[in-house]
Amino acid sequence: MKPPLFRYLVPETLAEARQMLSAHVGSAKIIAGGQSLIPMMNFRVVQPGVVIDIGRLLELETLTQDSQGGLICGARMRHNAMIESPLAATGWPIIPQALRHVAHLAIRNRGTIGGSLAHADPAAEWALLAVLLEAELTLSSVRGDRRVAANDFFLGPLTTDLQEDEMIIQVRFPALPKGHRAVFQEVSRRPGDFAMAACAVILDFDGQQIRSARVGLMGVMDRAFRLTDLESALRGQRPSDQLIRECSADICGDMDLMNDRQASAQFRRHLARSLVARCLAEASDLHGTSGGQSHAATH
Ligand SMILES: Cc1cc2nc3c(=O)[nH]c(=O)nc-3n(C[C@H](O)[C@H](O)[C@H](O)COP(=O)(O)OP(=O)(O)OC[C@H]3O[C@@H](n4cnc5c(N)ncnc54)[C@H](O)[C@@H]3O)c2cc1C
What we know:
Distance between the termini: 30 Å
Bound molecules: flavin-adenine dinucleotide
Strand content: 15-25%
Number of domains: 3
Structural class: alpha+beta
CATH architecture of the largest domain: 2-Layer Sandwich
Helix content: 25-40%
Strand order of the largest sheet: 4-5-10-6-7
Largest sheet: 5 strands, antiparallel
């Protein structure tokens, strides 16, 4: 399949990119890694009249730390560059853990954080990471820049708060507590497939008690989300098999889960509960399996 005809524009500066988006509102699409856009164009799911290639905007390929210790990630950072980043591995190890599950090497070499977040697939690892890590996205247009919390950015499957004249230029991940334990697990039919369900957990301990907990799921609903009731229930507790069994028993009980060719809602509910229990046990090192920053893959 070949895409329909389109105009191909290559801005040299960010200002030029913003101008181009503004001049072609409604018909323009940014292209970053092209790993989702090109297949969608080939299948006529989207038919942009203008494609704006941001490949020359090197300022969107930077990875730095700000004065508050936050990780500032340019929108064109590739999945693989993040997997290989010593900065991410040191302060946000859940990022490389999760991104190793994105598709295959060729796709991870091309795909970008900005493209993945803008695409907003309900089973995208970047979306779960953004929600779990309380990321803040900077959206830019000729009207100015605005910042949006990841939790407010995702509105549904393939739907975000991004306006037609806006582009993502940067994503900020606040610092995590030193010594936290992070675990990511997902279940997919084959390695590289989109997940049927995935869970990410970050636990911070005060001695043997959980000081704070973050638990996120993706692939089971129309967008990634945090289990905030569970997080509150875990706070101040000393992890045990019984606690984890009790806490994970009712997860997603009254939620309307996705039901599609990949997996039934009932199976997704089972996966969500199993993955949460397994991630919590591993992050708590209950069975001596975790160095605190390990990950497990289940295919
Ligand atoms: C076979 C296959 C398997 C895959 N498996 C997975 C998987 O398991 N997990 C996963 O997370 N992903 C998976 N993907 C998707 C992959 O991660 C893509 O890289 C990602 O979704 C899109 O990133 P991109 O940079 O290629 O964006 P593009 O394809 O270039 O763009 C995607 C969308 O985002 C918009 N866009 C891009 N950059 C910006 C920006 N800076 N600001 C505003 N809008 C922007 C584009 O206009 C387009 O609408 C898979 C893809 C394929 C082809």
